[in-house]
Amino acid sequence: MSDPTLSIVCFSGTDDRLQAVAVLTAGAAALGRPVHLFLQYWALDAFRKDRIDADHGLAPEAGAAGREAVDALRAAGQASWAETLRQAKELGGVEIQACSLSMDLLRITEAELDPLVDGVEGVTSFYLAAGEGQILFI
Amino acid sequence: MSDPTLSIVCFSGTDDRLQAVAVLTAGAAALGRPVHLFLQYWALDAFRKDRIDADHGLAPEAGAAGREAVDALRAAGQASWAETLRQAKELGGVEIQACSLSMDLLRITEAELDPLVDGVEGVTSFYLAAGEGQILFI
Amino acid sequence: MSDPTLSIVCFSGTDDRLQAVAVLTAGAAALGRPVHLFLQYWALDAFRKDRIDADHGLAPEAGAAGREAVDALRAAGQASWAETLRQAKELGGVEIQACSLSMDLLRITEAELDPLVDGVEGVTSFYLAAGEGQILFI
User: Fold this and answer.
1) Between B105, B132, B134, which is nearest C69 by CB?
2) 0.95 exceeded by the pTM?
């Protein structure tokens, strides 16, 4: 088969779900597949350059044990989701676009976004780039 | 390419995720694609006709700043997710079905659902309608 | 059409989302489709054999009414998500794999997992098994 694009609508801005985004992105990129991330809502908010390396919390279900597990791995040197995405982008084929509607909602300007973000696009552009490939919503 | 159906399993009933459903539905419909929504659990509950226009809250991660952003946009006249879905249905090609198992779980009768909902179906009917097209879980 | 594999990345470990996983798995299996579950994070935690039958809570949005509805159905004899998955596996074609990175994160050993789990794999193996078939993230 060719290398079909994997598209991910990133909605959630908690560190656990963004880590899932990063792992799934890095894995697909390692297989040579193009990956297209579309940042909406709280995920977009997490990509502001003044807070991308901040603590974005975990899903409520993580609980104290989950919090402790994540902290222990980070203390042991595990890359953050932002670092993992930077590494995946260096492999090539990873594109990260902000959703224009969510930019309006959160009153974010492109200058406020981390350089990981390649640009801003609307939902129809997102669909056209995704084609008939797989789309995840995270 | 033809216009492949986009299917969305709608699970979450918070206004932010339902707004994401509405935006992704409207965008696909604007491209001429058929869209098939399958309402489960808390999303189904949000489509009761006596509460579809109520406040359904946001994901916990939204926080106070997220709440404020959503309220400001609504005050500025942004359409609610239900209004966006109504408009998308007028374009044609958008079908909204309630999951029969979730109807039983929540003891909802078809008469209690908003007219946006076209009917009730089981999960196998959902898969048959989705074919090999894209499926999102929101 | 042939019977394309349905792949589900299971991230959330609450009983309502795991029930959605079980229903979507059982429905696909009933149609003769292979189903491949990939357990990450809190979903993986829920498959520990010493707690798979415990109460894993619901999404916060469920509220008191949601809690009551789920409890009523369980009291009426509805199968738990774990039971539904066991039944689906007996039909054949359902494979459940733990994500190796999440095993490390949560310091879980394979011996601690419920026998429902068939093994441990990395994300690239997951993608290769999924091929170009549908992938859901729950």
Assistant:
1) B105
2) yes
Contacts of C54 in chain A (CB under 8 A): none
Q: How far apart are the C-alpha atoms of A135 and A128, rounded to whole Å?
A: 12
pLDDT in tens, B119-133: 999 999 999 999 999
Nearest residue of chain B to residue C22 (CA atoms): B123
Domain A6-137: give its CATH architecture: 3-Layer(aba) Sandwich (3.40)
User: Which of C94, C89, C100, C93 is closest to C125 using CA atoms?
Assistant: C100
Instruction: Kindly state whether A33 is in contact with chain C, defined as any CB-CB distance less than 8 angstroms.
Output: yes
Tokens 């997102």, residue located: A126
Which residues, in sequence order, are CB contacts of A37 under 8 Å at separation 6+?
A7, A8, A10, A21, A25, A94, A95, A96, A97
Beta bridge partners, C10, equal C39
pLDDT in tens, B29-51: 999 999 999 999 999 999 999 99
Residue numbers in C near A27 (CB within 8 A):
122-124, 126-127
DSSP A93-134: -EEEEEEHHHHHHHT--GGGB-TT--EEE-HHHHHHHHTTSE
Q: Which chains touch A (3 or more CB pairs under 8 A)?
A: B, C
Residue located via tokens 């797989």 = A134
A50-82 pLDDT tens trace: 999 999 999 999 999 999 999 999 899 899 999
How distant is the Cα of B106 from the closest Cα of chain C, in angstroms? 6
The neighbouring-strand residues paired with A95 are A36
User: Which segments of chain B are extended strands (E)?
Assistant: 6-10, 35-39, 94-99, 119-121, 135-137
A116 touches chain B (CB under 8 A): no
Question: Using only C-alpha atoms, what is the Rg of chain B?
Answer: 15
Q: Give residue limits of the domains in chain C.
A: 6-137
Residues sharing a CB contact under 8 Å with residue A92, sequence separation 6 or more, in sequence order:
A29
Tell if the CB–CB gap between A69 and C106 is shorter than 8 Å: yes
